[in-house]
């Protein structure tokens, strides 16, 4: 049994909750939420990279268990997983630059227009990131549950 299905749910949950916190915090503007959202995002990205890497072993397992019929779905799943990580990494960089005062010495970073644009960009990236996560999860579910054997356990019992 591959490690991937066991660890993949942690980054999904962490990144999903982090994105919700970010969207809420655009309106309530609490520093505690800002820091907590950033922490969840960092942990989610780190565990997401681990999950992404563990997917390679799961890919070989799935192809051996179900044949080449899953190849296209796995490739799409892998693409959206990478896209999800990229979106959340860009989001984290934007947060660190504009919401954690890394550029506090630069005058232009304090302007209302910059803060407004960064908030809008953060919300849009959160929505895009959540969408990519949902698509990734859906495709992962298709790989596991839309096979002739219907599940990994049934496939093992048939052998």
UniProtKB/TrEMBL annotation:
TM helices/strands, residue ranges = 6-24, 36-54, 79-98, 119-139
> Residue limits of the DUF2231 domain?
2-146
Which InterPro entries is this protein grouped with? Cyt_c_oxase-like_su1_sf (IPR036927), DUF2231_TM (IPR019251)
- Record's keyword terms, sorted: Membrane, Transmembrane, Transmembrane helix
Q: Does the keyword Phosphoprotein apply?
A: no
**Protein name, per record:** DUF2231 domain-containing protein
């Amino acid at each position: 049994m591959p490690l991937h299905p066991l660890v993949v749910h942690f980054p999904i949950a962490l990144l999903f909750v982090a994105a919700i916190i970010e969207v809420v915090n655009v309106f309530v503007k609490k520093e505690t939420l800002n820091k907590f959202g950033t922490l969840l995002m960092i942990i989610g990205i780190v565990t997401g990279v681990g999950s992404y890497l563990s997917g390679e072993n799961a890919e070989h397992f799935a192809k051996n268990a179900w044949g080449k019929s899953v190849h296209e779905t796995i490739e799409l799943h892998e693409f959206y997983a990478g896209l999800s990580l990229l979106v959340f990494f860009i989001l984290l960089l934007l947060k660190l630059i504009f919401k954690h005062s890394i550029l506090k010495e630069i005058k232009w970073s304090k302007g209302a227009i910059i803060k407004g644009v960064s908030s809008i960009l953060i919300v849009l990236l959160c929505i895009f990131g959540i969408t990519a996560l949902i698509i990734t999860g859906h495709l992962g579910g298709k790989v596991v549950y839309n096979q002739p054997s219907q599940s990994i356990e049934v496939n093992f019992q048939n052998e």
